[in-house]
Specification:
The protein is mainly alpha-helical. It is built from 21 helices and 2 strands. Strands 1-2 form a two-stranded antiparallel sheet.
Length: 635
Amino acid sequence: MTVTYTAEVATCTGLGCFLHLLGRWRGSIYKLVWRDLLIYLVCYYTLNLIYRLALNEGQQLVFESVVDYCKEYSTLIPLSFVLGFYVNIVMQRWWNQYTAIPRPDSLAVFVSSTVHGQDERGRVMRRTIMRYACLSVSMVFTMISPRVKKRFPTLGHFVEAGLLQPGEKEIMDDLNSKFPKHSKHWLPLVWAASIVTGARKEGRVRDDFAVKTMLDEINKFRSQCGTLLTYDTMSIPLVYTQVVTLAVYTYFVTTLMGHQWIKESKSTVDIYFPVFTTLQFFFYVGWLKVAETLINPFGDDDDDFEVNWMIDRNLQMSYLIVDEMHHDHPELIRDQYWDEVFPFELPYTLASEPFREQHPLPSTANIKVKRDESDLFIPSSLKIDEIQYDDLHSPINFTAKPASLRRSGSSKLSLGRSVSDGMHRVNTVAGRLKRMFSTKDESENKDKENYAGSMAELAQSNQSLHIKPPRPGSMRIADQVIEEVDEQTTITQQKKAEPPHPSVIGLFGPPPPSQPVPVPTTSASPFEFPVIQRPQISKSAPTHETPREMDFIDNISIGSVDADGSDDEFTRLKNLREQERRSRLAKNYGRSLSNRSEHNDTEMLLLERRGSIKRSSSSSTYIDVARCFSQTSSK
């Protein structure tokens, strides 16, 4: 039976609670090691007396040489590593075997609550199911525990104990004669599952979910029984056990000579008794004895499991749950906290008053944040080091986007000299060299190109979104969503920026602007064609609209000049886009006319072969006109 000492180590006071356990004998290390230690000391003193009394000086020199040799090379044995790792495996295996022991309590609760019936048959069903479960685990114990095997050596002893009926024993004997190699511990569980399904057919189990719950619990019970048999048949590899045993015993055989006292030894403490050698033997051999005791916890050692007590307890608890307590509970009455809903605190006795405990606090309960440090910090949407400044003396830049684009997650629109899509860092060696050797003229040209590209991009985005383009030089703020770059940081960077290098334009000033040259306009469009009177053809030929309907191209002027003589940049871009669009429409219209003429030509050829009609001369004239129109459009 396992030695229990939990009550003695519940409270650590004084010099500790483990010192009280050193005086125990049952299950102690002294009980395991004293025989081995006695044999070791007898061998040690025998060699010591031989060295002192039976050897001459020459033989003593040889003895001393052997002692020095054993003492030098005894440390090569990795005893601590091998033994520690082995004991760790044994301890894990020992606890896993304990948790794998099946207990019928859960199955008994399910059977008692789902198998209904106060008559004799319902009671027999419930008791028989639990008896089969207890019989199954008892048969497993007889195969893995010598204690239980001595208690129930045959199936007849189970019959005498009341776990097995004579008719059931005959069935098992018949199966054992046919299949003698396999254990039959699972057979009672199969019978229990059959009883559950029969109770469902008789209506004693109300629903299929209850049947499934009991069958799952029976299957889990069978799985735990199989796990115990697996631990019994699959041991720790024998090679590992042999290595550990040889390492321990060969090490201490070596210390019998290596730790002997000799005349040339510097120490004189261990002349009569090897104190530290005895402690070393006590610890290492005791460690090995722990592994030997726990490797099979179903044996006869002091710390092995109480399997015989488990058999009695399983049957008693099973019958108590499914029979004595079946559908029985105390009277339903109000509890004493009915009016209070829940108690603030349960009462204490005088003995437990010093142990009144407070509500535990989390680890950050005592951390206080200062008032000036509790303000929220909202960072800007753009980082300053990601913005490229072409001119450090330029005003603060903004990034403007239409609200529809911002909601849809499309690309940004740039206004003025704002951040472009291809944003990159400029705090590099290449960027600094580029700004160092660049002139003011290049900066101004770059500003003009950026402005033109930004206006073109803005016009294209407005046209695709059906947004009315703003007038040049102005913008409606209500239709935009402005993202302001961090103003304070931008001003700080501009103050710290280096002054620009002198340039020719900076010294002599910019040249006067040239006068705009007006571009002559023409009233004739390159896409206007002469009106051709088309002859009347048969009804099978396609009919076209009047020439007025075909006149869909307006006169376009390549450039325009305002009344004050300044170029309208936005109007010029708009005219270019409109010119491109109309050019594409003209090409598409020409292709459609060409396709129609080819289709009509093929249809006329087929009708002529059939002899139904003759092709008219006007049809060829129409095809020539269409082809001419197509060629003109492509040019």
